[in-house]
Amino acid sequence: MYTSLTIAGSDSSGGAGIQADIKTMTLNHVFAMSVITALTSQNTMGVTGILNVPKEFVEKQLDAVFCDIVPDSIKIGMVSNSEIIEAIATKLKQYKAKNIVVDPVMIATSGSNLLEEDSIKTLREKLFPLAKLITPNIFEAEVLSKIKINDKKTMLIAGEKISKEYNCAVLVKGGHSINDADDLLYCGGKHYWFYGKRIENKNTHGTGCTLSSAIAANLAKGFNLVTSIKRAKKYIEGALSYNLDLGQGAGPMNHAFDVKEKWKKESKQCY
């Protein structure tokens, strides 16, 4: 069975972070493992607290995984301070990790900051060069490229700059702020557009985590980067289209949307 590892923070509401990653990887038919970098107290309305895991314990988790079940791919999400970032980078190089997807989580869907300011430099210097792909949203791509993005032309300019600077592929996620969920992949001097349909759903908590985890899961199964992104976008569109409505803020998606018929049958039996 193919395996994938998520290195990220825990989301107590279950819609993003480690919880979303494990659901996504499982529903994309790979065995999911986890290294937790932080505990968060959060729900659909925002983040009320962050407790970072000591870097020594992050290292122990990584050793435990790589010394037993070597992952076929890795997704890196919330890594909120420089010490943890450096520890992860050192271990990934030590174990010659492959198929690394970095989602540079800087801000939550609710608007809460998840990355300390001085950690952005460490993230760029230590983790990005190890990545096969990084997946910034528009805000994150603007921070990384220092380019204001307001249309597809500036998306392309920013994507090219980021890719060349860190020598890795970059997927700039357009989302509804620029277009109808059209994303741009810049890789090896070439660019590819992935077109998505606009889904009217305010419940988008964990979309970034879910997309990057789905890409990692498909890379683990041996699909190339372009195919992995296509398959991941199809999965996230299904999860959004289910229109799950939980919580008082930006709610989560239904990661298990494709088993809904079974759920409906069981629900009828229960009530």
Structure description:
The chain has a nine-stranded mixed beta sheet with strand order 3-2-1-4-5-6-7-8-9, sandwiched between helices. It is an alpha/beta fold. It contains ten helices and nine strands. The chain is globular and about 45 Å long. It has helices at about 15-25, 55-65, 80-95, 120-125, 140-145, 150-165, 175-180, 205-220, 225-240, 260-270; strands at about 5-10, 30-45, 45-50, 75, 100, 135, 170, 185, 190-195. The mean pLDDT is about 90. It comes from Gemelliphila asaccharolytica. Belongs to the ThiD family. Its EC number is 2.7.1.49, 2.7.4.7. Keywords: Kinase, Thiamine biosynthesis, Transferase.
Please outline the helices and strands.
Blueprint: E1 3-11, H1 17-27, E2 31-43, E3 46-52, H2 55-66, E4 73-76, H3 82-94, E5 100-102, H4 119-127, E6 133-134, H5 138-145, H6 152-166, E7 169-172, H7 175-178, E8 183-187, E9 190-194, H8 207-220, H9 225-241, H10 260-270
Parallel strand pairs: 1-2, 1-4, 4-5, 5-6, 6-7
Antiparallel strand pairs: 2-3, 7-8, 8-9
Pfam families: Phos_pyr_kin
GO molecular function: kinase activity
Catalytic activity: 4-amino-2-methyl-5-(phosphooxymethyl)pyrimidine + ATP = 4-amino-2-methyl-5-(diphosphooxymethyl)pyrimidine + ADP; 4-amino-5-hydroxymethyl-2-methylpyrimidine + ATP = 4-amino-2-methyl-5-(phosphooxymethyl)pyrimidine + ADP + H(+)
Tag the structure with descriptive keywords:
single chain; 271 residues; alpha/beta; nine-stranded mixed β-sheet; 9 strands; 42% helix; kinase activity
Radius of gyration (Å)? 18 Å
Number of helical runs? Answer: 10
Contiguous runs where pLDDT drops below 50 for at least 5 residues: none
How far apart, in Å, are the first and last alpha carbons? 37 Å
Fraction of residues in β-strands: 15-25%
| Main sheet overview | 9 strands, mixed
Number of strands: 9
| Largest beta sheet: strand ordering | 3-2-1-4-5-6-7-8-9
Fraction of residues in H or I helices: 40-55%
Order of helices and strands: EHEEHEHEHEHHEHEEHHH
Q: Structural class, judged by helices and strands?
A: alpha/beta
Average per-residue pLDDT, rounded, comes to: 88
Rough shape?
globular
